[in-house]
Automatic annotation (TrEMBL):
Protein's job: Performs the first committed step in the biosynthesis of isoprene-containing compounds such as sterols and terpenoids.
Chief site of localization: other
Stated name of the protein: Diphosphomevalonate decarboxylase
EC number: 4.1.1.33
Catalytically driven reaction(s): (R)-5-diphosphomevalonate + ATP = isopentenyl diphosphate + ADP + phosphate + CO2
Subunit description: Homodimer.
UniProt-annotated location(s): Peroxisome
Enzyme class (EC, first level): lyase
SUPFAM superfamilies tied to this protein: GHMP Kinase, C-terminal domain, Ribosomal protein S5 domain 2-like
Residue intervals of the Diphosphomevalonate decarboxylase-like N-terminal domain: 17-190
One GO MF term attached to the UniProt entry: ATP binding
Similarity-based family: Belongs to the diphosphomevalonate decarboxylase family.
Amino acid sequence: MVGEPEKQILMVTARTPTNIAVIKYWGKRDETLILPINDSISVTLDPNHLCTTTTVSVSPSFDQDRMWLNGKEISLQGGRFQSCLREIRARAQDVEDKKKGVHIKKEDWQKLHLHIASYNNFPTAAGLASSAAGLACLVFSLAKLMNLKEDNSQLSAIARQGSGSACRSLYGGFVKWVMGKEDNGSDSLAVQLADEKHWDELVIIIAVVSARQKETSSTSGMRDTVETSALIQHRAKEVVPKRVVQMEDAIQNRDFPSFARLACTDSNQFHAVCLDTYPPIFYMNDTSHRIISCVEKWNRAEGTPQVAYTFDAGPNAVMIARNRKTAALLLQRLLYNFPPQSDTDLDSYIIGDKSILKDAGIKDMKDVEALAPPPEVKDNISPTQKSKGDVSYFICTRPGGGPVVLSDETQALLDPLTGLPK
């Protein structure tokens, strides 16, 4: 590393979105390379509301690779981190920063150490795809630091080796992870089906039922399912290939009824496969089931789907409304059925795009308490029957764009002089 000796620090900060699968990935054909047994399709969520920010830095003064997640130092010794670091370093190019007078030859990257700081603006390991955003951001930011020539689709094949669904966070909008057929995984990568502007009237509301870490990790859950479920092979071979084609058509044509039916049925089948695992895996809970019931009653009463729901490996509900007007009606129903505790500040109960509260005609807790039962609810629910406090908070968001480099140095998570967390 040529330049002002030992002290010079080069840094890149990037922001990467999370994604929610509407055709689920569950089960691997190769555990090490993270190769799936079926294709999957996801919607990228607006990074203004759900994202990982990562700063990566390099300096001759660093004596080892180090990483901090949400302010706490974590080990980089895990196989998945090592796979990503190895693959990126192997593709590193010459880097020159004329302003700092720094020149790094590509062969030097193998000897130089990195400092990495990462921050999720949403709960980690609670079934909101934090590992997807995290590993995608790690790969994307390192690729920029080391001047890689690979495009985002090729980078997705590296991110996939850190966390399967991370490959889908390398793009915005609607993304397909192609399972691939090659043993080495070279053709198992993400492709963008449509960008976030293609279907921008969709509004997404996430009910965070629990921000706790889940009991069964996705990694061990998948392994157990593949080994013990009789349904999983039928799902992967017979059901998902047809659904993927239908979902691609629904997205292309902005056909919401088909999109909703496919998203809901695929989510339900994924959880059925978890139940068919031995011992069974329970990711959803009673609150998750009540949310499904609330959406299904409304969809049935309207005669056509107003809202799609989907659940990943956790109890949190992701609801996709066909447009903003529907989203306001959905929020009214959710607040009627799942009001916050009386002493809760509404501002912290609805986060993200708060303007939907205004559309729903809700300014404060008095408005929540005055909500009338939705027309599809036959009997007025007494306040004691309502699921008060069962939802921690709601996030209002929308489909969003892919990873970006943040050029504003004040957004860096590492100190430019020491390379340690700010």
